[in-house]
Design goal:
The protein contains 5 helices and no strands.
Length: 167
Amino acid sequence: MPKSSRTLIAALALLLSIAFAISPFFVPSFAGFDPNQFPIPQDNPPAQPAGYAFSVWGLIYLWLIVGLGYGLLRAPRDAQWHDMRVPLCLSLAVGTTWLAVAVMSPVWAAVLIWIMLVTALLALFLSPVEDPLWAAAPVGLYAGWLSAASCVSLALLAAGYGYLDGQ
């Protein structure tokens, strides 16, 4: 891949991280899945993160933006950074739409969050060795949240569709 394309991907990664961070402002009504979005309403779901756990998103958004900004300024053409950025761009692009989809369909939200997780994990495994604070750490935190959220989504779907008892 031409090195100029790497710079474009670096800029795209930063722009997608910003879009991902501001996406909640476009879907302010989402506060978790509506219990009635499931055939078996989930008033007390078997798996649900505590409300305070969502406060980590400020750190995730900020660290991704700062880390990808650092990478754009310091390593715009670096091959290792580029290898990480490609799957991360896919994850962030899907993540930018996640809240809007989640308002409409927990099933499609689960599909999207698994796509986000797989691509974030790939980005983490491909992250540059030299800059862990600006690459692997923010991507790892993001992937860590997604690993928990993707499993919660499966538990919610299983309970909501009668495959898992809420007890």
